[in-house]
Specification:
The chain is an alpha/beta fold and about 475 residues long. It contains 17 helices and 13 strands. About 50% of the residues lie in helices and about 10% in strands. It has a 7-stranded parallel sheet with strand order 3-2-1-4-5-7-11, sandwiched between helices. The two termini are about 40 Å apart. Catalyzes the reduction of fatty acyl-CoA to fatty alcohols. This is Fatty acyl-CoA reductase.
Length: about 475
Amino acid sequence: MSEKYILEDEEFNMYFTEKILRIQPNIEKLYLLVRAKDANSATQRIHSEVVEKELFRILKDKWGGMGNLHAFISEKVVAVPGEVSYDNLGVKDFNLCEEMWRNIDIILNFAATTNFDERYDVALGTNTTGAFHVLSFAKKCVNIKMLLHVSTAYVCGERSGIIAEDSFHIDESLNGTSKLDITAEKKLVDETLNQLRAKNATEETIISTMKDLGIKRARLYGWPNTYVFTKAMGEMLLGYYKENLPVVIIRPTMITSTYREPFPGWIEGLRTLDSVVIGYGKGKVKCLPAKPDTIIDLIPADMVVNAMIKAMVAKAYQHFSDPIIYHVSSSMRNAIKLSNIRDFGYRYFTKNPLNNKNGKAIKVDKFIMLDTWTQFRIHIAIRYLLPLKGLKLVNHVLFQRYKGITTHSDRKLKLVMRLAELYRPYMFFKGIFDDTNSERLRMTIRETKLEAVDAFNFDPNCIDWEDYMMNIHIPGLLTYVVI
């Protein structure tokens, strides 16, 4: 296999690196972009924050220990200090740049900030401008065959019905009421930051203002949050400025723990639904604004990586004008509903309860789903807002004796409402992701021998959701995520 260049940020750099080194140890070179001040720091990050993860256990055993694995990694992986939000990806070593431009044939862009309400300047710099910088770098590679960009299926916003694997037009908005101008958005960010700094605004004020600005701009054009809005703009720039460079866009849905490879249940950090599952097991999350029959589109992380590898192999030697898009999803072929996940969670934590700080088992009740936003607000008002107002009144009468408690409770309630507002579009989502392009890709696997089917499986039809949630995903959350 020829050289590959992987951009660091998402945990996918770990999944992908592990998979490639395990199944294709003869690969010539992997260039891994790492946020670090210099090459030594970048190398140290790869060895300590990537290779030493439990995810690499199978590779460590294969090479006879961590020492041999580190030696193998040092031979195959080049740590590149840099960051996608800068020109030339922030790579300051010109000799290294020339080496990469000379040798690289496929570039993969994993880089993203995935917080729904990330600072607008940060999200724009990584998810939008960062994608353009990766494209610009790819155009300088003399042997480039393709750029593979990892996005998200939820760039569709809150569309309903069958959602096709279609690309965006430059400056396209989802609501059609305003023309989106990406250059103007960048200018707005710069002007807002300059105004805040001119007023000597605190860092807390800057963060809050930029988060609110991102949500405001996203909703102005029809997207529910800053993350999917800036990822959509990144796709627009790729499609518009790609010229003759083949671009493949992978759009996964909600990514969960590994289904099979390198072993079942591994996950790095909590994702959208996982926070609710763990909060429920702890007895802290008891209700959610959500429709029970909402299809929640989940896909295991190793299936996403398998789809990426098969897309690379299938398209690396083809020339195509428009970006090819793959939805890596389950809703079309093997749907799971929120009510299913609620039932699996109840059964799991009833049988395997977590313990509280005193070591006693936490009893969980049936999870409440309030199927309208109005019902949720009424529930919050009765259960939390009215008691809080009463406590504030008592606090006033008793000369601020309970000020600390009321301040903490008020802040916590505002956070809950903000998070509920951010997650609401996905708890009432009415879309089904068409995966026709992905199915065609799977058909090419089925035409090969059985070993290849097993090694690169990303068919959601094979997932038994009850078995996966009860025996793989929830146990994986409790094993590999600090909670």
